[in-house]
Design goal:
alpha+beta, about 200 residues, globular, 4-stranded antiparallel sheet
Protein backbone atom coordinates (compact mmCIF):
# COMPACT_ATOMS: atom_id res chain seq x y z
CA UNK A 1 0.00 0.00 0.00
CA UNK A 2 1.34 3.44 -0.93
CA UNK A 3 2.01 5.99 1.77
CA UNK A 4 -0.56 8.76 2.01
CA UNK A 5 2.34 11.22 2.12
CA UNK A 6 5.06 10.06 -0.30
CA UNK A 7 8.52 11.62 -0.07
CA UNK A 8 8.57 12.49 -3.80
CA UNK A 9 5.46 14.68 -3.32
CA UNK A 10 7.41 17.05 -1.10
CA UNK A 11 8.88 20.24 -2.48
CA UNK A 12 12.66 20.31 -2.94
CA UNK A 13 13.00 22.57 0.09
CA UNK A 14 10.89 20.24 2.22
CA UNK A 15 12.90 17.24 1.02
CA UNK A 16 16.10 19.01 2.04
CA UNK A 17 14.65 19.62 5.48
CA UNK A 18 13.71 15.96 5.93
CA UNK A 19 17.18 14.85 4.78
CA UNK A 20 18.91 17.29 7.16
CA UNK A 21 16.76 16.11 10.05
CA UNK A 22 17.65 12.50 9.33
CA UNK A 23 21.37 13.38 9.15
CA UNK A 24 21.11 15.22 12.46
CA UNK A 25 19.65 12.12 14.08
CA UNK A 26 22.52 10.00 12.76
CA UNK A 27 25.33 12.49 13.49
CA UNK A 28 25.77 11.76 17.23
CA UNK A 29 26.46 8.13 16.44
CA UNK A 30 29.03 9.08 13.78
CA UNK A 31 30.81 11.50 16.11
CA UNK A 32 30.80 9.13 19.08
CA UNK A 33 32.33 6.32 17.01
CA UNK A 34 35.78 7.85 16.93
CA UNK A 35 38.91 8.21 19.10
CA UNK A 36 38.64 11.73 20.54
CA UNK A 37 37.78 10.74 24.11
CA UNK A 38 40.94 8.85 25.07
CA UNK A 39 43.08 10.41 27.80
CA UNK A 40 46.71 9.81 28.67
CA UNK A 41 46.57 8.44 32.23
CA UNK A 42 50.01 7.15 33.23
CA UNK A 43 53.64 7.51 32.07
CA UNK A 44 56.59 5.38 33.13
CA UNK A 45 60.27 5.09 32.37
CA UNK A 46 63.20 3.43 34.07
CA UNK A 47 66.53 5.20 34.38
CA UNK A 48 67.94 4.33 30.96
CA UNK A 49 64.65 4.35 29.06
CA UNK A 50 64.82 0.66 28.16
CA UNK A 51 61.51 0.01 29.93
CA UNK A 52 58.71 2.51 29.30
CA UNK A 53 54.94 2.62 29.03
CA UNK A 54 52.09 4.98 28.21
CA UNK A 55 48.61 4.10 29.44
CA UNK A 56 45.54 5.73 27.93
CA UNK A 57 41.97 5.37 29.18
CA UNK A 58 38.43 6.20 28.12
CA UNK A 59 35.11 5.95 29.87
CA UNK A 60 33.24 6.17 26.57
CA UNK A 61 32.16 3.61 23.98
CA UNK A 62 32.91 3.76 20.26
CA UNK A 63 36.48 5.04 20.69
CA UNK A 64 38.27 2.14 19.03
CA UNK A 65 39.32 3.96 15.86
CA UNK A 66 42.85 4.89 16.96
CA UNK A 67 44.57 3.30 13.93
CA UNK A 68 46.72 5.92 12.17
CA UNK A 69 46.49 8.37 15.07
CA UNK A 70 49.64 9.46 16.88
CA UNK A 71 51.14 10.08 20.29
CA UNK A 72 53.80 12.75 20.15
CA UNK A 73 56.24 13.79 22.87
CA UNK A 74 58.29 16.98 22.52
CA UNK A 75 61.30 17.67 24.73
CA UNK A 76 60.85 21.23 25.92
CA UNK A 77 64.50 22.17 26.14
CA UNK A 78 65.55 21.02 22.67
CA UNK A 79 62.34 20.64 20.68
CA UNK A 80 63.30 17.05 19.88
CA UNK A 81 60.14 15.17 18.91
CA UNK A 82 59.29 11.48 19.06
CA UNK A 83 56.14 10.21 17.34
CA UNK A 84 54.32 6.92 17.80
CA UNK A 85 51.66 5.94 15.25
CA UNK A 86 49.00 3.40 16.21
CA UNK A 87 49.31 0.53 13.71
CA UNK A 88 45.69 -0.55 14.23
CA UNK A 89 42.51 0.04 16.18
CA UNK A 90 41.80 -0.72 19.82
CA UNK A 91 39.51 -3.53 20.90
CA UNK A 92 35.80 -3.18 21.61
CA UNK A 93 33.89 -2.16 23.58
CA UNK A 94 36.08 0.71 24.74
CA UNK A 95 34.06 2.13 27.64
CA UNK A 96 36.03 1.98 30.91
CA UNK A 97 39.01 0.39 29.19
CA UNK A 98 42.70 1.19 29.15
CA UNK A 99 45.14 0.69 26.30
CA UNK A 100 48.78 -0.03 27.12
CA UNK A 101 51.55 1.15 24.78
CA UNK A 102 54.79 -0.23 26.19
CA UNK A 103 58.25 -1.56 25.41
CA UNK A 104 58.24 -5.30 24.75
CA UNK A 105 60.47 -5.92 27.79
CA UNK A 106 57.72 -4.91 30.20
CA UNK A 107 56.09 -8.35 30.13
CA UNK A 108 59.11 -10.14 31.56
CA UNK A 109 59.37 -7.64 34.41
CA UNK A 110 55.89 -8.03 35.85
CA UNK A 111 53.87 -5.86 33.48
CA UNK A 112 50.89 -7.05 31.43
CA UNK A 113 51.14 -7.78 27.71
CA UNK A 114 51.13 -4.44 25.83
CA UNK A 115 48.34 -3.70 23.37
CA UNK A 116 50.85 -1.83 21.21
CA UNK A 117 54.66 -1.90 21.29
CA UNK A 118 56.61 1.26 22.09
CA UNK A 119 60.28 1.70 21.09
CA UNK A 120 62.74 2.05 23.95
CA UNK A 121 63.73 5.64 24.72
CA UNK A 122 60.49 7.07 23.34
CA UNK A 123 59.63 9.08 26.47
CA UNK A 124 61.90 11.88 27.67
CA UNK A 125 62.44 11.86 31.42
CA UNK A 126 62.99 15.62 31.63
CA UNK A 127 60.54 18.47 30.90
CA UNK A 128 58.37 17.57 27.89
CA UNK A 129 54.86 17.76 26.48
CA UNK A 130 52.96 14.66 25.38
CA UNK A 131 49.92 14.75 23.10
CA UNK A 132 47.59 12.15 21.64
CA UNK A 133 46.45 13.62 18.34
CA UNK A 134 42.83 14.67 17.95
CA UNK A 135 41.80 14.10 21.55
CA UNK A 136 39.95 16.62 23.70
CA UNK A 137 42.67 16.27 26.34
CA UNK A 138 45.21 18.12 24.20
CA UNK A 139 48.86 18.49 25.16
CA UNK A 140 50.01 17.42 28.63
CA UNK A 141 53.20 19.12 29.87
CA UNK A 142 55.26 17.49 32.60
CA UNK A 143 58.35 18.71 34.47
CA UNK A 144 59.96 15.28 34.77
CA UNK A 145 59.24 11.57 35.00
CA UNK A 146 60.35 9.49 37.99
CA UNK A 147 63.22 7.20 37.04
CA UNK A 148 63.63 5.16 40.24
CA UNK A 149 62.06 2.12 38.57
CA UNK A 150 59.09 1.81 40.90
CA UNK A 151 57.09 4.99 40.36
CA UNK A 152 55.20 6.50 37.44
CA UNK A 153 53.56 9.83 36.66
CA UNK A 154 49.78 9.91 37.05
CA UNK A 155 47.77 12.25 34.81
CA UNK A 156 45.91 14.51 35.42
CA UNK A 157 47.62 16.10 38.38
CA UNK A 158 51.16 15.05 37.42
CA UNK A 159 51.64 13.20 40.70
CA UNK A 160 54.00 10.30 41.30
CA UNK A 161 52.59 6.93 42.32
CA UNK A 162 53.57 3.26 42.36
CA UNK A 163 53.41 2.22 38.70
CA UNK A 164 50.38 0.11 37.73
CA UNK A 165 50.24 -0.55 33.97
CA UNK A 166 46.89 -1.88 32.72
CA UNK A 167 46.13 -3.27 29.28
CA UNK A 168 42.87 -3.49 27.33
CA UNK A 169 42.06 -6.91 28.80
CA UNK A 170 42.07 -5.32 32.26
CA UNK A 171 45.26 -7.04 33.44
CA UNK A 172 47.22 -4.85 35.89
CA UNK A 173 50.88 -5.34 36.75
CA UNK A 174 53.85 -3.59 38.34
CA UNK A 175 57.31 -2.96 36.91
CA UNK A 176 59.40 -4.58 38.14
CA UNK A 177 57.11 -6.85 40.11
CA UNK A 178 57.49 -6.60 43.93
CA UNK A 179 59.28 -9.99 44.12
CA UNK A 180 61.95 -8.64 41.78
CA UNK A 181 62.59 -5.69 44.08
CA UNK A 182 62.88 -8.12 47.00
CA UNK A 183 65.44 -10.21 45.16
CA UNK A 184 67.39 -7.08 44.24
CA UNK A 185 67.41 -6.05 47.89
CA UNK A 186 68.54 -9.47 49.09
CA UNK A 187 71.22 -9.58 46.41
CA UNK A 188 72.49 -6.15 47.41
CA UNK A 189 72.61 -7.16 51.07
CA UNK A 190 74.47 -10.36 50.23
CA UNK A 191 77.00 -8.48 48.13
CA UNK A 192 77.66 -5.98 50.91
CA UNK A 193 78.28 -8.79 53.41
CA UNK A 194 80.71 -10.48 51.04
CA UNK A 195 82.63 -7.24 50.54
CA UNK A 196 82.78 -6.63 54.30
CA UNK A 197 84.21 -10.13 54.90
CA UNK A 198 86.85 -9.63 52.22
CA UNK A 199 87.92 -6.31 53.69
CA UNK A 200 88.11 -7.68 57.24
Amino acid sequence: MRSAFPFRALSSRARLGVTAAAAALLLPNVVSASFHLWQIRELYTNLDGSVQFIEIFTGSSGQQFVGGQTIQVVQQGTGTTHTFTFPGNAGTPTNNHAVLIATASITGLGGPTPDFTLPAGFLFSDASTITMSGTVQGGVPYASLPTNGSQSLAIPGNTTQPNSPQNFAGTVGSVPEPMTWGLIGVGGLGLSLILRRRSA
